[in-house]
Amino acid sequence: MGQYHKLVNLDKQEVVDPHRIGLFSKQYEHTGTDASLADAIYLLVMSSPASGGGDWPATDVSGRWCGDRVVIVGDYTEPDAIQNYHPDSGDSSTLYRDSDSWTDISASVRDAFSKVFPITYKVEMKELGGEPYESVNRVIVH
User: Fold this and answer.
1) Domain residue ranges in the chain
2) The pLDDT of residue 89
């Protein structure tokens, strides 16, 4: 089945879920396109947004994670894989699951991407097994 990943901020306990920004969850599915998970990291950790020619426009999340400990964590993450991280449980292998209760800023990243890239999103609430979930599709604007 493969390992699933998401972007987490250990200091702010915030998360970006690839599904909620119109991507899939495996590493090869995160890069190589506009509005990728790599672009999300860049947007969130930049130190001087919109400060000069050629810069991305400032958004509500530009630089939000600058200086923080940020990790792309997988559901197979081993306990010793994240240096200098000591969760209350003592087991970093639960970080992928534990981060489900953290603040999800994926919708804010989507909004920011719509300002930076020629992209919009179609978001629909659906149900799976009686549980609601957000279905997100990326729409490239030409």
Assistant:
1) 5-117
2) 59
